[in-house]
């Protein structure tokens, strides 16, 4: 079976230019066309596995630099090449800074130079996909296993990590940001510093109870501890940047922009805040309204999109009471689950995992028969 040709999306408002690009590339590539930036973004949503976007710089409505900047955020593994008839410094700087272009070509572009650039772009795409697969299968897999185990030993903190990760990734996917491994890893590792705290203090912080001065000092050191633990792990640099920026002030966060780090920081910070508010007894509507008051940090559009997401999501899950032995992965336990001695096993809001199901096999029959409140999909 012949392997499918790499998919190239060419964007230009001049039909003759598009015809020329097709003529030079169609032998080796599956070439798709778009006459504007908006049409290109729509085609990227519809098409699967686009390798390279080749865009003109000057187009009405949305120029090439703006288009490639959005491609970078929405489809980070697509290689971006810019064509321009005005090889000025300002245009080049704008394109590189906004769209992180892989190649910058001037028009008219010789066919051999175009083919060489596209071939290099396809190779770059494959390298990035291989990098992503390595991260998903090794680094992210190890992190998931680690957090799953830590959720059993420190259920308050790492139960929250699993829950925050799920919500952050569901929201990002709904917004068109797929395979956002930097955000996924940052969400899972966001609670790592709590390992240094007594479990009782973690519970107090989790439920918003008053803290002493000494406890506040201990709690303030949590982000630095997490960064120190992760600093020597390769491939986690963007994850560390997101976790570090969570502790920055509003102006510093806004200056990060809408790239991988900026969007990841604002999304994770927003989800963490929302989770804290809901855990402390607030409704989703009250939590969303509180987030609106911090739109200067998270961005008004992002907050409104998230408010719609959690509002729509709440209608898709139902609350019910079932015996503990009947819980299934993906369900959310809506009450503190304690032993008859008062030891906290999992806090309310804990998302059931396969590892947790293995653990409850060791519980006594009385506890397994106890009915608990859960949220589950309809």
In terms of topology, how is this protein built?
Layout: E1 7-11, H1 15-25, E2 30-34, H2 37-46, E3 50-56, H3 64-74, E4 79-84, H4 89-99, E5 103-106, H5 111-153, H6 155-174, H7 181-189, H8 199-206, H9 213-220, H10 222-230, H11 237-245, H12 250-255, H13 260-279, H14 284-292, H15 295-298, H16 300-314, E6 317-323, E7 332-333, E8 337-338, E9 344-346, E10 350-351, H17 354-360, H18 365-369, E11 371-377
Parallel strand pairs: 1-2, 1-3, 3-4, 4-5
Antiparallel strand pairs: 6-11, 7-10, 7-11, 8-9
Summarize the structure in words.
There is one protein chain. The chain is an alpha/beta fold and 378 residues long. Among the domains are: 7-127, Response regulator (Rossmann fold, 3-Layer(aba) Sandwich), CATH 3.40.50.2300; 316-378, no CATH class. Helices cover 57% and strands 13% of the residues. It contains 18 helices and 11 strands. It has helices at 15-25, 37-46, 64-74, 89-99, 111-153, 155-174, 181-189, 199-206, 213-220, 222-230, 237-245, 250-255, 260-279, 284-292, 295-298, 300-314, 354-360, 365-369, and strands at 7-11, 30-34, 50-56, 79-84, 103-106, 317-323, 332-333, 337-338, 344-346, 350-351, 371-377. The protein has a 5-stranded parallel beta sheet, with helices on both faces. Helix 3 (64-74) packs parallel to helix 4 (89-99), helix 7 packs across helix 13 and helix 13 crosses helix 14. The longest helix has 43 residues, at 111-153. It is elongated.
